């Protein structure tokens, strides 16, 4: 069983990651906008495997965006260690933060139906990226009814000498009808 929080599609999505107005948020400019906190200062570590290996971590799943007409994926990069090879040069590692459309079926609540034809939004962090940094990408319509937020780490050809770590906060900011 996965340790990723899941939504039982037979019940209301209010039980998990429902968007709510947060008036004190620095990302909210309009009272019709809502913020979903996906992760706060989440520590991520990738072992630096070579040869194009991709590691994927789902950060949140089944985020209800059915009432949204527009949105933004916001990633705050708080910290990142040096992503170096054994020789001291930068690795070819890349962390890609991705928002994808998914749907849940009440008859199969453990299955996520993923729109694999495209991503809704994506933000990239590489070896040369410096901290602190704010990254934003608009959600490309059509999106919904639910989103999955994940990070895909691809090492590339140059292996890392040690674990590549970063600390991020991730938010979805959306405007309702």
Number of strands: 9
Assigned CATH architecture = Sandwich
**Which topology does CATH recognise?**
Jelly Rolls
Total of helices: 0
Strand content: over 45%
Instruction: Quickly count the domains.
Output: 1
Q: Pairing-aware structural class of the strands and helices? A: mainly beta
* CATH top level label: Mainly Beta
In round numbers, the mean pLDDT is 82
Helix content: under 10%
Multimeric status of the protein: single chain
Biggest β-sheet description: 5 strands, antiparallel
- Give the ordered list of helices and strands: EEEEEEEEE
Report the radius of gyration as a whole number of Å. Answer: 17 Å
Distance between the termini: 37 Å
Low-confidence runs: 1-23
Overall geometry: globular
Helix-strand blueprint:
Layout: E1 33-46, E2 54-64, E3 68-80, E4 94-105, E5 108-114, E6 121-126, E7 133-138, E8 146-154, E9 164-176
Antiparallel strand pairs: 1-9, 2-8, 3-7, 3-9, 4-5, 4-6, 4-8
How would you characterize this protein structure?
The chain has 177 residues and is mostly beta strands. The protein has one domain (13-176): Jelly Rolls, CATH 2.60.120. 0% of the residues lie in helices and 51% in strands. The chain has no helices and nine strands. The termini are far apart.
């Amino acid at each position: 069983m996965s340790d990723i929080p899941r939504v039982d599609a037979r019940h209301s999505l209010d039980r998990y990651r429902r968007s709510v107005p947060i008036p004190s948020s620095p990302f909210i400019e309009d009272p019709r906008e809502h913020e979903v906190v996906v992760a706060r200062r989440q520590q991520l570590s990738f072992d630096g495997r070579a040869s194009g290996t991709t590691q994927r971590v789902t950060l949140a799943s089944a985020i209800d965006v059915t009432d949204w007409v527009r949105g933004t994926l916001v990633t705050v990069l708080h910290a990142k260690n040096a992503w170096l090879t054994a020789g001291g040069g930068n690795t070819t590692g890349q962390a890609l933060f991705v928002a994808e459309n998914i749907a849940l079926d009440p008859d199969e609540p453990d299955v996520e139906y993923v729109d694999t034809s495209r991503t809704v939004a994506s933000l990239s962090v590489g070896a040369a990226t410096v901290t602190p940094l704010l990254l934003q990408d608009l959600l490309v319509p059509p999106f919904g009814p639910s989103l999955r937020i994940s990070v895909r780490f691809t090492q590339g050809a140059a292996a890392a000498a040690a674990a590549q770590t970063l600390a991020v906060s991730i938010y979805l900011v959306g405007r309702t009808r």
